[in-house]
Amino acid sequence: MVLFLLVVIVAIVLGIIGAVAKGLLYLLVIGAVLLVADLVLVGVRWSRRTGR
Predict the structure, then answer these.
(1) What residues contact 27, with CB distance under 8 A and at least 6 apart?
(2) Which end of the chain is more exposed for a tag (fewer CB within 10 A), N or C?
(3) pTM of the complete model beyond 0.90
């Protein structure tokens, strides 16, 4: 769970930097992709846990 929160914080920080800094829009995209990937990973882990 700590890893999930750390990755979410990193994704938010990258998104903020990408949105604010001129020319660093790719950081916003990386942050969004990282956030979506992290949410999918947690969803898969959670569905495995409830399936047992």
Answers:
(1) 14, 15, 17, 18, 21
(2) C
(3) no
